[in-house]
Automatic annotation (TrEMBL):
Entry keyword Membrane: yes
Stored PANTHER family: PHEROMONE SHUTDOWN PROTEIN, TRAB DOMAIN-CONTAINING PROTEIN
Transmembrane parts of this sequence: 215-234
UniProt keyword terms in alphabetical order: Membrane, Transmembrane, Transmembrane helix
InterPro entries reported for this sequence: TraB/PrgY/GumN_fam, TraB_PrgY-like
Any matching Pfam family: TraB_PrgY_gumN
Protein name: Pheromone shutdown protein
Keyword Transmembrane helix: yes
Classification of source organism: Eukaryota, Viridiplantae, Streptophyta, Embryophyta, Tracheophyta
Any single Gene Ontology cellular-component annotation: mitochondrial outer membrane
Length: 238
């Protein structure tokens, strides 16, 4: 049995968080290039949105995981990345959404990132939801209009991490788990409950119904409308 294990809410696809000290906001060109490489559209826009929020708050998501990793290395503990692979989560999230919701969500994230509340307002929202973390707060807000997001981005991951943590705890003498506040309740609820991991790991067929041209066109049209409305608004104020 392993003596000491530190279980972290990360997967191999997000392990870079452990070494990066800041979160770069991708440019529009970089995002379009990612779309052309057939990367998940939701993952691209969602990642950009989170980077904007993090910069507004002047925080770097995952700082607590970096501290846990450093402490584990200092004391010779074993680090277990216990979250479901991010690509599976993103693809399942995208697949469960109807086409109209996909277009609406991408456009919504894009414009919300352009008109983010001030850092003080965002911090107030986090304090009012003290059982949550920044990422879960974002998901909870979006889920008011897109209900399937909570299922794949939070609830399914709660089940996956609960099952993984239970397995690790049986194989180790001592385990310290470091996860976001928004996952604590779900992990506890599913503790020692039957969980179908195979179902949670199922990858939907990779046949994008929304093309790069359609996504860029939708966002472009939205920007044009915003520019026109903004122009009319400011012209009236003169």
């Amino acid at each position: 049995m392993c003596n000491q294990v530190v279980f972290i809410e990360l997967c191999s696809g997000r392990v870079a968080i452990l070494t990066h000290q800041n979160l770069k906001v991708p440019t529009l060109k970089e995002m379009v290039d990612s779309l052309k490489k057939k990367q998940n559209p939701f993952g691209i826009i969602y990642g950009w949105f989170l980077a904007k929020v993090a910069n507004q708050l002047e925080v770097f998501p995952g700082a607590e995981f970096r501290v846990a990793f450093d402490e584990a290395m200092k004391y010779g503990g074993k680090v277990v990345l216990g979250d479901r692979p991010i690509q599976i989560t993103l693809r399942r999230t995208w697949a469960k959404m109807p086409v109209w919701h996909k277009t609406k969500l991408l456009t919504s994230l894009f414009f919300q990132s352009l008109f983010l509340p001030s850092a003080s307002v965002l911090n107030k929202m986090l304090k009012e939801m003290n059982d949550s973390d920044m990422l879960t707060l974002v998901v909870q807000e979006m889920s008011k209009r897109f209900p399937t997001l909570m299922e794949t981005l939070v609830h399914e991951r709660d089940q996956y991490m609960s099952s993984t943590l239970l397995r690790v705890s049986k194989e180790s003498r001592s385990v310290v788990a470091v996860v976001g506040k928004g996952h604590l309740k779900g992990i506890k609820e599913h503790w020692q409950q039957p969980i179908d991991l195979a179902k949670l790991m199922e990858m939907p067929s990779h046949k994008p119904r929304i093309t790069v041209k359609r996504i860029v066109g939708t966002l472009g049209a939205g920007v044009a409308v915003a520019a026109i409305v903004g122009g009319l608004f400011f012209s009236r104020k003169k």
